[in-house]
User: Fold these one by one.
Assistant:
Number 1:
Amino acid sequence: MNTGLASVSRRRPETDIEWKEGARLDGLNSMGLRAAARLMAVVRTEQALSDFLEWAAEEGEDFVVLGEGTNVIFAKESLDLVVLRLAGDFEDFAVDATGITAGAAARLAALVKAARESGLSGLENAWGIPGLLGGALAGNAGTRDWAIGDCVEWVEVFDRSGVKKRLARDEAGFAYRRSALAGRVVTRSRLALRKEARERIEEAIARAAARRSGQPKGVGSSGCIFRNPPGDSAGRLIDAAGLKGLRCGGAMVSPVHANFIVNAGGATGADVLRLIETIRGRVREKFGVELETEVRVIPSKG
Ligand code: EPU
């Protein structure tokens, strides 16, 4: 397929890294945007990750780490950058009596399910949050009053120069929908959980599911687009500004929950970004509040 993207001909390590030129990213974002990256590297072991990082440093190549793309917007259809994906060993996780040790490519939903089945409490609020553990940690995913960072004991990361570090929770910089992990490659984490009666766990999951019932389903979206401003709710402000149903091309403010932008058909990244700016402008005009995006925008160039 001709993606119109320049190919990369420089030396690349021949180890366990799987290289894909002009890699399609269409299935790799929950907004359902069409995109392709100049180059994708899939690593399945820590050794392959080290080799990749050495290559990227030597070649001066910047890269973005992409999991299931549940919180990302691709700025353009053609991305002149390198995408790194973790798979294989990084998908593994193990449950024991006091928690779960998991690779960054484990699905958060699988961890919630495993904790529930083992009678472990602490992850119930993550019920319904899509995506992989690494992205959830980097963005400190959660609800209004709980975030994944709350149950982290440690996080292992590789920095861009290939140095591996184990960070205690306090060193990971967790705050509301933020962490100090973005910019590094999260590879593994230990989530500390506690034994709890099955009934309590089921009740907590039912409460989490009820909170999510007011959110759009069965349609492409990236979850909440904006962080909540202190003491208020981005969804409430956007709704009160009368913006539900507003469209830019194929991107639309969800009629169900105003802090969601949904793909109403054939949306492009540019449509979504235009809609984001329109919403910010209207909310600023009407309420004097500056909304900050929660989603990560992947630029067209590395
Ligand atoms: N509201 C409206 N109109 C809307 C949407 C919401 O008036 O269209 C009002 C609601 O009535 C409520 C208030 O705004 O009074 C807050 O809404 P909601 O309870 O839905 O919570 P939220 O603050 O919008 C947060 C998280 C969600 C998380 C839910 C459930 C943020 C930015 N959002 O939403 O996280 O699922 O709580 O706990 O912190 C995400 O981060 O991607 C995300 C979806």
Number 2:
Amino acid sequence: MSESTNNQTISQLSARLWRARHDQRPISPLTKETPSLTTQQGYAIAWHGMSLRQEQGESIVGYKMGLTSEAKRRQMNLNEPIYGVLTDKMQLALGTAFDTSKGIHAKAEPEIAFHISHGFSSVPTPEAAFAGCDRIAPAIEILDSRFEGFKYFSLPDVIADNSSSSHFLIGEALRRDTFVHWEDLSQISMQFKVGNTVAQQAMAAEISGNPILSIVALCELFLSQGRTVPPNCWVLAGAATAAVALEPQMTLTLQTDRFSPLVLQTR
Ligand code: OOG
Ligand code: MG
């Protein structure tokens, strides 16, 4: 494929995804028509889509890691960690209800978020990744896929779709030094409740073995693409459990043994 054909393919496919999100009409996987699509092209499509969002006034406030837990890899039938980009428009203010009619088939999942204060231009050790964060918080990610049925798409498809990102909610953060050692992070117990029922639960160790290792993995992916992780951004480490399908009038609570409970209401 020549460079100009490649660029044309990338802008056409990212326009399809844009339209699907805007019209809330799911499309068939991109790889159905373009089976040769690579993960590298997937990221180029996602970044192109992101530049369109920036032209519309959105600004990048962070990144999300995806498929960092076994539960998620099983749920999505895909095997490798991926990343997506988060904007200010995707962030829900605490206490605002999420309108499920604004999504195609939205789901929510329990996560841990890190506020990166320092930025990374090389792959950090877990200690250095931990030291590069100033705050740690519980988070709920709301996913939505622009693909029909949400499931069984390939890695380039989900990457191109900005890793199924839709919205996210960050709870009350604790200062990083509340945690004595980065290894303590894996011991956070996470319960994801729908109403009073525990829908999903796991230890944070399910996230990359330790959620700080998701930051290391993000740096690896970024550096392999010639990017650096900037200071002053949030990173979602990936879901600890499978995602829960959203319906109107749900109260979801992420309860942990370290943070204040984080509540997401739907309407
Ligand atoms: C891909 C995004 C995965 C996570 O936390 O694992 C993700 C998907 O499930 O559609 O955000
Ligand atoms: Mg997620």
